[in-house]
Specification:
- It is built from 33 helices and 25 strands.
- The protein is an alpha/beta fold and 810 residues long.
- The protein has 2 domains: 454 residues, Rossmann fold, CATH 3.40.50.2000; 267 residues, Glycogen Phosphorylase B (Rossmann fold, 3-Layer(aba) Sandwich).
- The strands form 6 sheets. Strands 1, 4, 7, 8, 11, 12, 13, 14, 18 and 19 form a 10-stranded mixed beta sheet that branches. Strands 22-21-20-23-24-25 form a 6-stranded parallel beta sheet, sandwiched between helices.
- Helix 26 links the parallel strand 24 and strand 25.
- Helix 6 crosses helix 33 and helix 20 packs antiparallel against helix 21.
- The longest helix is centred in the N-terminal third of the chain and has 30 residues.
- The chain starts with a helix and ends in a 9-residue tail after the last helix.
- The protein binds ligand 26V.
- The site of ligand 26V has 22 residues, from helix 6.
- Its EC number is 2.4.1.1.
- Belongs to the glycogen phosphorylase family.
- It holds the Pfam family Phosphorylase.
Length: 810
């Protein structure tokens, strides 16, 4: 419909008049955004319908990616890129007097996720559609996404993220496809035709109404669906009154409790919390998603025994594990299957990805809660557990072994155990992580099902994180090696040939400087801090968590401050340390680390003696769209988690793809980055995961000893409490000192400090040689194709889902 600039301008102006009744002069940036959105929606409508039609006609296997989180960010720019209209629209709008970047910033971020896990789901959807796979997302349409972070007086304050306030141009409400989800009630058993049947009575029903968002693939016109469910009241107030439940208040109470189901995203990605509302959300997603995909499956008129040939249900962490008992329920109670056949179908249909080894994040639900809220589901889980444990005992496993792997234990339901028992594939998200799963945390399960465990190292979509976020770098790459990498990212490897090419190096460093200037302008505008674009931009952006060790970073910055104060005249490379991080609202230690970063920024930036050489910036409200500004401007990427704790990391890959050099530990996917890059192209430091494990198992680490031995550490830690100048009133940072000294530094911050400081010295040294730095940067970009989520998805498709790209018959 708008294949060239003139056509685009004509339809744009026409829509402005017909939809909004406005002329070009009257239009606001918000109007322009809306019209662009609806033009794209119209433009891809046919492809969307066609993608759905092919699914029915060709009976291709469909993947459904169930996730409580989809951190998609903004869609306008990416959709334009994927339909191949980005430059046409940019030029056309320019002629009409508008700047596309400004229009893009009108779109609120869809912040329906906490961090890595939710962003991974969004990258996967982009790759699935771009590679022509029939793979859809199934999630919740939270009315409020992840909280908006404000920094007030150095503290994090959380505000509601009312992202739907001005409507959502991408979504399509589909009331005709709503399904009923049931909570509470009692299970009644009876005999019918010689079989026991289970019926739940007295339940509360809720409508799950889908909102479909098109997932537009790059190039070939495949459009998949992200189906987001919203909860609506399913009780007619008139009928309620007639039934004698006539209290107006009981209707209001019911209505409020229904709305709460899809009201907000839980912001805690650091610890499991046994909250009833969260359990409701999980079941709501599982039940609605399954009913909906089974309706589609039923149109094929195939027996349910063929479900695993036509459908893969993938669960993103344990959050949607209830798909397992829910599918069992539907197969047995609604389709009349016996246990064994239903179990066989279920296990062959479901696959599971584990995203964390942290014991505090492993989900366990109180048995009572599930029994009351989901009585039939509870019975099924009980039976799964009984048969699972029974079989193991029969096979001669010890009682001790069986209680290690049991699904029900001490009044709790262990969701990871249920997920493993009920799925055909269990994968970790990086090589090291999968090894630790197999040999440590899930070792007994690996013993039981060695063939089910496999690794799928995470990836990121190079379309959003390179082509869209860094268009100048993308052009440079295409000029050097052609544009084949845009569809085959492994071809980026060819860029390595240019690592010593002085022209490419110069242009690359020029682009980096441009991006840094752009970020500097943003920092000036938003926070009123002036940073030097010529300084090293050293960036750590990710959720705030003890194991990610933002604390080690800021303690090192404070150490640099002391160094400069001691010897102000030593020649140094100026550095800007940039942080961005949200802390879970109830995670006090994390919040005081945010406060510390802000206090340090204040002291350092205001000190004229220091601030020429050192600046610190904490960027408020880190989000997908902010990441797209920050990452292309980074020289140094901080990936400094305690070895063995970060399952994979995906920020690490985004920085690498944008030419930043990594300072990092051998953790998560850093290990694989290091294998590709070698020590000349990455700054490695710190304990290895095995050493960390040994300390945990056998002891031998005394943090306080390091404090007494190392004068730098003593000075840094003392300057937080008694000695100033980073000391706050009411001994605010006492909690940080306690964590390090009294609680023996769980994440080895002090243990790795010396090695980290040494690696930071190497960074500074390396940066002085700009030719060699540029060369390392090129090698990083050249190897980053390995981490495109296209490669990851190809492996999921081949090894787990057994799907092939859907080809359009033309
Ligand atoms: C835990 C919980 C606990 C209950 C409340 C809601 C909630 C939400 C999230 C989480 C943590 C899930 C684990 C997670 O986010 N893992 C991250 O997954 C990334 C993608 O695989 C990976 O790159 C990161 O290393 C890993 O920390």
């Amino acid at each position: 419909m708008f294949n060239n600039k003139e056509l685009f301008k004509a339809s744009f102006q026409e829509q402005l008049v017909s939809r909004l009744g406005k002329s070009m002069e009257e239009a606001t940036a918000g109007d322009v955004y809306k019209i662009l959105g609806s033009l794209i929606r119209e433009n891809i409508g046919r492809d969307w319908a066609e993608s759905n039609r092919i699914a029915k006609v060709q009976e291709e296997k469909q993947v459904y990616y169930f996730s409580m989180e989809f951190l998609i960010g903004r869609l306008l720019g990416n959709n334009l890129l994927n339909i191949g209209m980005l430059e046409t629209v940019r030029d056309g709008l320019k002629e009409l007097g508008w700047d596309l970047d400004e229009i893009e910033s009108q779109e609120p971020d869809a912040g329906l996720g906490n961090g890595g896990l939710g962003r991974l789901a969004a990258c996967f959807l982009d790759s699935l559609a771009s590679l022509q796979y029939a793979g859809h997302g199934c999630g919740i349409r939270y009315k409020y996404g992840l909280f908006e972070q404000k920094i007030i007086d150095g503290h994090q304050v959380e505000l509601p993220d009312d992202w739907l306030q001005r409507g959502n141009v991408w979504e399509e409400r589909r009331p005709d496809k709503k399904v009923e989800v049931r909570f509470w009630g009692r299970v009644e058993m009876s005999e019918r035709d010689g079989r026991t049947v289970f019926e739940t009575t007295g339940y509360e029903k809720v409508w799950a109404v889908p909102y479909d968002v098109p997932v537009i693939g790059h190039g070939e016109g495949r459009v998949n669906t992200l189906r987001l469910w919203s909860a609506e009241s399913a009780v007619d107030p008139i009928k309620m009154a007639q039934d004698g439940q006539n209290s107006y208040y009981s209707f209001l109470n019911y209505s409020r409790s229904v709305q709460s189901i899809s009201e907000f995203l839980y912001p805690d990605d650091s610890g499991y919390e046994g909250k009833l509302l969260r359990l409701k959300q999980q079941y709501f997603l599982c039940s609605a998603g399954l009913q909906s995909l089974l309706r589609t499956f039923e149109k094929l008129k195939l027996p349910y025994t063929e479900l695993p040939e036509k459908v893969s249900v993938h669960i993103n962490d344990t959050h949607p594990t209830l798909v397992i008992p829910e599918l069992m329920r539907i197969l047995m109670d609604e389709q009349g299957f016996g246990w064994d056949e239903a179990w066989d179908i279920t296990v062959r249909t479901v696959s599971y990805t584990n995203h964390t080894l942290l014991s505090e994040a492993l989900e366990k639900w109180p048995e009572n809660m599930i029994r009351e809220l989901l009585p039939r589901i509870y019975m099924i889980i009980e039976e799964i557990n009984k048969r699972f444990c029974g079989q193991l005992l029969e096979e001669g496993r010890s009682q001790e072994f069986v209680s290690q792997v049991a699904i029900l234990e001490s009044g709790q339901v262990k969701m990871a155990h249920l997920a493993i028992a009920g799925s055909n594939s269990i994968n970790g998200v990086a090589g090291l992580h999968t090894e630790l799963l197999k040999t440590d945390v899930m070792q007994p399960f690996y013993e039981l099902y060695p063939d089910r465990f496999n690794n799928k190292t995470n990836g990121i979509t190079h379309r959003r994180w390179l082509m869209h976020a860094n268009p100048k770098l993308s052009s440079l790459i295409s000029e050097a090696i052609g544009s084949g990498w845009t569809t085959s990212p492994l071809q980026l490897k060819e860029l390595a040939k240019f690592k010593d090419d002085r022209h490419i190096q110069d242009v690359l460093m020029g682009i980096k400087l441009d991006n840094k200037r752009r970020l500097a302008a943003y920092i000036q505008d938003k926070q009123g801090v002036m940073v030097d674009p010529e300084s090293i931009f050293d960036v750590q952006v990710k959720r705030l968590h003890g194991y990610k060790r933002q604390l080690m970073n800021i303690l090192h910055v404070i150490h640099l401050y002391h160094e400069i104060k001691d010897q102000p005249n030593v020649e140094r490379v100026p550095r800007t340390f940039i942080f961005g991080a949200k802390a879970a609202p109830g995670y006090y230690l994390a919040k005081s680390i945010i406060k510390l970063i802000n206090v340090a920024a204040d002291v350092i930036n205001r000190d004229p003696q220091v601030s020429q050489q050192l600046k610190v910036v904490f960027l408020e409200n880190y989000s997908v769209s902010l990441a797209e500004k920050i990452i292309p401007a980074a020289n140094v990427s901080e990936q400094i988690s305690t070895a063995g704790k970060e399952a994979s990391g995906t920020g690490n890959m985004k920085f690498m793809m944008n030419g930043a050099l990594t300072i990092g530990t051998l953790d998560g996917a850093n290990v694989e980055m290091f294998d590709l890059l070698g020590e000349e192209n990455m700054f490695l430091f710190g304990l290895r995961s095995q050493e960390v494990l040994n300390y945990y198992r056998h002891g031998g680490y005394v943090a306080r000893e390091l404090y007494h031995q190392d004068a730098r550490l003593r000075r840094v830690l003392d300057s937080l409490v008694t000695e100033g100048p980073f000391c706050c009133h009411e001994r605010e940072f006492e909690i940080i000192r306690q964590a390090l000294l009294d609680h023996n530094d769980e994440f080895f911050v002090l243990r790795d400090f010396d090695d980290y400081a040494a690696a930071q010295k190497q960074v500074e040294q390396a940066y002085r040689d700009s030719v060699s730095w540029a060369s390392k940067s090129i090698v990083n970009i050249a190897n980053s194709g390995h981490f495109s989520s296209d490669c990851t998805i190809e492996r999921y498709a081949a090894d787990i889902w057994d799907i092939a790209p859907v080809r359009r018959e033309s």
